[in-house]
Amino acid sequence: MPPIRLGPNDLLEYDEAHGVLICRECCYAIQKSALQSHLLRHKVYREERQNLLARIAQFNIYEPDEVPLPAPGSPPIDALPVISGYRCTTPGCANLCASFKRMKRHHSEVHGTVDSSIATSFSCPVKLQTFFRGTKIKYFEELHEEIEMENPKGAFTQSATFTKVSCQAARSLPSVDVNLETLRYFHHFTTTTSLTLPNTTYHEEIWGYWNTGLILQALQRKWLMCGILAISACHLGILENGTGNDLAHHEQSARCAHEFLAGYAGAIESDLGLEADGSEDEAKQGGMRIHCILGCLQWATGHFVQILNLPPSPEIRNSLLSFMSMLQRLAAWDTMVAGAQEETFTEAARILNTMTLSNRQPLETMTYHQSLASDILKRLSELPTRMTEAFGRPESTRDVLATLSAISALVQCCANSFTSDETATTFNAMVSWLNKVPQHFNDMAACNSAPALVVLAHWAAILMRRAENCGNWFLRGSATKILLHVKQECAEDRRVLQFLVGDLRA
């Protein structure tokens, strides 16, 4: 039976054979529990959403663990992306991985092999698909044409021909200027740093952006390459902190950042317009994302200005609101839809109700994450009452609604953050809060309104600290700086300092 398409612009596709509902725009299957929020992200509101959900209710949609996977060699599913991966050829295994790095880890952890050549010998390239993403990801192999290998004999002949170049001719060629230090930072970026930086789409998670598309742009533009090297050098400096090499890395990072900022400013101000293929626009987009990463590092540590005495750029400055704006530019696109305020309240109430029910289970049966998340959600559920006791009866109803909405959004984002310790999950949960809070709350924070600062402090102490601890190294120190800012602004109000934020730690 062919798939059934429904929703605006055929947004959804029901695959009866596998019992899944696939979002054709996001290219992955949606769990039943996430249908409402997912439709809201695509701006399917109210009556249209309810009608769509009523129709979907007639379908038999499986939970992720119940979905039957296609047999190896089955034709690909059109609504899902096809990615290159590897299959373990160890007898009786056939495990699938999306990268060779993960295949090596599989051989190490499951088969006890540490030699990477073993992983090469006992794995083969395949084409993969997956219905779900995140913690529910499970790959299956699909049918594809074998790529014809080059003739080994021909390859040998070509190699042998190359070796016929005379030593005398080789000596007459000019020497190659190879900057080993630059190559080291470039290699570190492509193999390590790029894997830690946030992606904005699911396709970027699968195919990569920082170590593929951006690299292609940077190889054609020195200023963009300097931005990549600045991030890489700073990352190495943080990793080698206290070894004696960190200062040299940070100095190199600052020099590269200086050259990047000059080139980026020139690209933004250029009047030449876009190239026919749009590559200049792509380069500017890449520059913007590098600028945001460097801006986060600068905001938290003052790193670049301190080392080279550089004047801060218009956006890399000591401004909390500027920092929050840079984070939003790095956010995944599916976290950028704020949603209606009543939706936020309803979802927060559901999460807190679920937490109350789960708290009835014996403490010894709860995992560390469950226990920690439960304690945090309990604190957030009590926060409005504690704020009323500290501040008294509020004068502005609009301020109250904005603050309650921000707390409800924080409940949602905390629940999302604790679903996984993955770097991307914790980063997107942290940033999505910025997109969920109403604009009036941002205005309150800009005016250093005490209620807004209290909620902001909880966001920093909970979500930002968790993102820092789960691999988002470019945020390191940010949570501490925000808490210090809040405590300084509230220093004269001991009720806030002692009763609401005094025990928060980053």
Automatic annotation (TrEMBL):
Entry-linked InterPro entries: OrsD, Zn2-C6_fungal_TF, Znf_C2H2_type
A GO molecular-function annotation: DNA-binding transcription factor activity, RNA polymerase II-specific
UniProt superkingdom: Eukaryota
Domain C2H2-type: residue ranges: 88-111
PROSITE patterns documented for this protein: ZINC_FINGER_C2H2_1
Any Pfam family hit: OrsD
PANTHER family with a match to the protein in the record: ORSELLINIC ACID_F9775 BIOSYNTHESIS CLUSTER PROTEIN D-RELATED, STEROL REGULATORY ELEMENT-BINDING PROTEIN ECM22
Protein name in UniProt: C2H2-type domain-containing protein
Protein's organism: Clohesyomyces aquaticus
